[in-house]
Amino acid sequence: MSAASRPFLRYLAVGAVATAAHYLLLAWGVERMHWPAPLAAAAGAVLGAQLAFVGNRRFTFGHAGPWWQAWVRFQVTALLGAATSAGVVALGTRLGLHYLLAQMAATGVAMVLTYVVNKRWSFG
What span is annotated as the signal peptide, if there is one (predicted)? Predict the structure, then answer.
């Protein structure tokens, strides 16, 4: 593994942990707390984003600058990633792809995009 690929692999690992937390809170909220699914999904997304911020700030990018500015930029980047993902899914399904295949493509595109933006802007 090259030194250049380590931050991206760390980004993937942090994303996996954040996604797992998102889904765990979603399931817990719906199954145990009887929250409406959209509320539980939103709570999970917020939790996942905050875990991703902390993990990426410390583990992926080793950012030591002011956390508040990086946090705002990270949240903007997350919204950019979500919008990009939605756009790729919309395009893919319009072109006749199954929605899950379109989502897989969208995840890949959004992951690379947000990694680059976070590396250069959020934590740069």
Answer: none
